[in-house]
Design goal:
single chain; 3-stranded parallel β-sheet; 8 helices
């Protein structure tokens, strides 16, 4: 099925994006990413070595940028200035790479985004030539504002980062999807494969996750499950589900031509 995901002008065949943190070691990271089939991997610049420390193991040695699209993020930043500074550093470390994931947090407990600071940072980054994928609240008005600024993808949370609670407000998410002219990706809150499938069935263009895989009892197996869930959810969305009928039943088999108790066919 020719159903590619296009972000910032580049085509991808996987609609699952995965994080690279929280694993036991880089080897487990590599195995899980391979099992997920992901082509885009997100990296917390403040927490993961991609060349900042030449004396420590580097993620680029196990996940080469020639094979994967790196999506550096500003996790851990609480001001627009700090986020912009972090992503500019990432661009230098990755030889001018301009695709980034912007997140500006407003609270250390819930990790909800600070939307005024997020909007401010997005404006600065877009002016600076970055392709900005932006983590945001599930507010349709804020999502539209970020798209109007020039962000190349909108990434509303499904629920609190790392909570595994799944999609707690599908209605707001659907409002964002229906109005968007750029890809919409669920970011944060996915806990298991059914959550990913539901996000795709709602019409999301992709799903980004980290904790749901890294914190599973068997991360590599969960990565494989997430790959299949995203594929199944996307195909179900494209196929179009049957309408819901609360008060009427319809048999799976036609009623005409059935064998009657007397052995005769019904008219």
């Amino acid at each position: 099925m020719d159903d590619a995901l296009i972000i910032a002008g580049k085509t991808y065949h996987s609609r699952l994006l995965v994080g690279t943190g929280k694993y036991r070691d880089f080897e487990e990271t590599r195995e899980a990413v391979d099992a997920s089939g992901a082509e885009i991997v997100t990296v917390a610049i403040r927490r993961t070595n991609i060349g900042q420390d030449a004396h420590q193991p580097s993620l680029v040695d196990v996940l080469p940028p020639s094979r994967y699209t790196y999506l550096p993020n500003s996790a851990g930043c609480y001001t627009a200035e700090d986020a912009v500074r972090t992503l500019r550093l990432a661009r230098e470390l990755l030889d001018g790479h301009g695709l980034v994931k912007l997140e500006v947090l407003g609270d250390p407990d819930t990790l909800f985004p600070d939307m005024p600071e997020t909007v401010k940072a997005a404006e600065m980054l877009v002016r600076d030539g970055f392709d900005v994928m932006v983590y945001c609240s599930d507010d349709p008005i804020q999502a539209r504002r970020l798209e109007d600024i020039g962000c190349c993808a909108i990434m509303p949370l499904a629920s609190i980062i790392g909570s595994g609670m799944g999609i707690v407000n599908p209605w707001n998410l659907r409002l964002i999807i229906d109005q968007a002219r750029v890809p919409v990706l669920v970011d944060a809150g996915v806990g298991t494969a059914s959550d990913a499938a539901i996000a795709m069935e709602l019409g999301c263009d992709a799903v980004l996750m980290n904790s749901a895989i890294a914190h599973a009892r068997r991360p590599v197996l969960m990565a494989s499950a997430m790959k299949m869930a995203v594929q199944a959810g996307r195909e179900a969305y494209l196929a179009g589900r049957m309408p819901r009928k609360r008060y009427s039943a319809e048999p799976s088999s036609p009623e005409s031509g059935i064998i009657s108790p007397a052995g005769r066919r019904a008219a």
